Amino acid sequence: MVKNVIVVGGGIGGTMTANSLVAKLYPEVSRDKVRITLISNSPWHYYKPAFMYVAFGAFYKNELRRPQASLLRPEINFVLDEVEGFEFSASRLRMSSGKTYDYDYLVVSTGCIPSPERIAGLQEAGDHFYQHDPAMQLYRKLATIEKGRIFIGVTFPKTPNVPHQCGIAPMETTLMLDEFLRQRGVRNQIEIVYTYPTVSQLLRNCLFLQKDTSEVLPAIFESKDIKYQRGFTLARVDPEKQVAISEEGQEEPFDILMQTPPIRAVDAVLNSGVSQASNNEGWLPTNRQSLQLEGFDNVFVMGDTVDLPISKAGGSCHSQSPVICNNMAGLMRIGKTVAEYDGKVQAVAQMGMEAGMPLWYDYDVDVKPTPPTKIGGLMRKGFNRGVYWSVARGLV
Ligand SMILES: Cc1cc2nc3c(=O)[nH]c(=O)nc-3n(C[C@H](O)[C@H](O)[C@H](O)COP(=O)(O)OP(=O)(O)OC[C@H]3O[C@@H](n4cnc5c(N)ncnc54)[C@H](O)[C@@H]3O)c2cc1C
């Protein structure tokens, strides 16, 4: 009997996993015992981290995307369609085209969606860099502002212990902003205020979601005359007065409000009825070791869709993908899972426009911050401009 494996999502998680599954299961794939299909609702694959460079005029749309089909091994059947319904109990997908697909094994890597509309006034008056068009809008403002106040904030999901997308991005972009405005020669006339909410994952009153990094930030910010403030949880925004109002009762004026917005799972995941996440956020209940969907042994979840306490980052997908490939092969070949995810995430943080800081952490050990270096910056540049596409192809 042929086994049908379907991967949903043509982002970094889905693309690298589909490619790696072909390599892992090559004996079965080459004898047509296993067929691998990748379904995505976009003909393009976006290198999402580059959206933050878009906000500073350093990347343009055609540099940060590739046709999805060009990244897939020839053994993979690519279907351009949208999953409308995940029927996990029937092992079936309902598509917006009206088709249905049955699967023996499924990988869900459908990402998450920035949802500024979940905070009153934020959509109208705020800016963010988590998608291409909002990042371009932010760029137009940052490229022309001459004086005033840029107020930076971070919104966490309401689901306990689930982080926002790419934990380090608000700090990275604050440092990039400082340097960008210095290069424009307007930094002296612009106040930058970095804020963090009262509750960030398991911490309270910090400046970052992990303690060690939180503790080094004040010195870095002070050296660059960046103001910082703990305990600012955005409750609503008054677009007319240009004021951000916090749950803690503060009112802060801004000329630009650069806010990490609320996020949620995509509609099809949200409506699957399986999520137990708070606030209708839709994260799928994921076994923290095997990465199987709780209650459905033939379904794996990865990337931004999981309800795990680790960064919603490509650097998480990179460590999750081999676990999923090994476990699926284990189930097919010996009837059991064989690998465990330890929560590992690795990345190179962009510290200003040129420097970088390699970082890694897992379920048990936090990031140990090190001084940013130009070598780190070069590593990040190499990843942005080339290595990423090899990762997506499952080669690195
Ligand atoms: C500004 C920014 C900076 C970042 N910086 C970093 C960084 O420095 N390092 C790092 O590791 N990570 C970073 N990240 C995070 C990283 O980009 C994401 O964590 C990663 O893309 C998640 O991968 P994914 O496969 O889960 O989802 P995505 O990459 O979002 O892919 C989801 C895919 O699913 C498809 N899809 C969605 N719904 C459906 C459906 N119903 N049917 C079919 N297809 C569907 C989409 O079209 C898309 O192709 C950053 C993200 C942003 C936005």
Q: What would your notes on this structure say?
A:
The structure is a single chain. The protein is α/β, with parallel strands linked by helices. The chain has two domains: 3-111 and 266-344, FAD/NAD(P)-binding domain, CATH 3.50.50.60; 121-261, FAD/NAD(P)-binding domain (3-Layer(bba) Sandwich). It has ten helices and 25 strands. Strands 5-2-1-9-23-22 form a six-stranded mixed β-sheet. The protein has a five-stranded parallel β-sheet with strand order 11-20-12-13-16. The chain has a three-stranded antiparallel β-sheet with strand order 6-7-8. Strand 6 (83-87) and strand 7 form a beta hairpin. It is globular, with a radius of gyration of 21 Å. The two termini are 32 Å apart. The site of flavin-adenine dinucleotide has 36 residues, from helix 1, strand 2, helix 3 and helix 9.
Keywords:
396 residues; alpha/beta; FAD/NAD(P)-binding domain; 2 domains; 6-stranded mixed sheet; 5-stranded parallel sheet; 10 helices; 25 strands; 28% helix; globular; binds flavin-adenine dinucleotide
What is the gist of this entry?
The protein contains ten helices and 25 strands. With 396 residues, the chain is an alpha/beta fold. It has two domains: 3-111 and 266-344, FAD/NAD(P)-binding domain; 121-261, FAD/NAD(P)-binding domain, CATH 3.50.50.
**CATH architecture assignment of the largest domain:** 3-Layer(bba) Sandwich
Q: End-to-end span in angstroms?
A: 32 Å
Please describe the biggest sheet, giving its number of strands, its sense, and whether it closes into a barrel. Answer: 6 strands, mixed
CATH topology of the largest domain: FAD/NAD(P)-binding domain
DSSP strand (E) fraction? 25-35%
Which CATH class of the largest domain? Alpha Beta
Tally of individual domains: 2
User: Could you give the order of strands across the largest sheet?
Assistant: 5-2-1-9-23-22
Quaternary structure annotation: single chain
**Uncertain stretches:** none
- CA-based shape: globular
Query: What is the CA-atom radius of gyration, in angstroms?
Result: 21 Å
The total strand number stands at: 25
